[in-house]
Amino acid sequence: MKKKAGAQASKAVKGRKSGASGRKAALLRTQAASRRSTAPSAAGLAEAKSEVRRLRQELAEARAEIEQLQATAETDFLLDILNRRGFERELSRSLAFIKRYAACGALLVLDVDRLKPINDAFGHAAGDQVLKAIAKTLASHVRASDVIGRLGGDEFAMLLWNLSETDARAKAAALEQAVDALRFSFGGGAVKTGASVGVAILNSHSEMRTALDQADSAMYVRKAQRRHEAA
Hints:
Order of helices and strands: HHEEHEHHEEHEEEH
Low-confidence stretches: 2-7
CATH superfamily of the largest domain: Reverse transcriptase/Diguanylate cyclase domain
């Protein structure tokens, strides 16, 4: 009787072991099937890479469009130079460089003389022609590293690098002479204009708004001097 009970117990243990082994094997098969179902296929990887390339291309195009819009917002369309917004951004950036590296430069503000009488007598198309000629003249008298902008109306600004005060004032005089030498033909007659230039020296203590105000004030002083000289 005892032998029979022992045999039955041994058989039950073997059954439980066999059942556990079967369940473990089934679990392993299920896990393997799950891994196979979730593992990316070659086609899936290729599709994912293609999608990444597409997104990168779209991002590059978006960045290029943003840069183009920014450039458009900071450009004077008539003269193809920086407008006030663009020039002030460049001036702010340059002043940060000057402060960090103890560099120097000069800010020149130029106001065109006698532009309003030209507009009144011959129209704004004539005035635009004068402004284009002046912008071209200024560009021909500065270096590629210098910056030219139109602050508005008949007022220009120039950021000139690495100039002493003496050199900056000499450059201002040369620019006045170059603009004074321009001649135009409107209404069958010769027309000339002129320019008055103010100078502010830039150093590590300069602030953008203060520098612009200094150059602008110096320009008005120079304009008064030129009127007195012409009288």
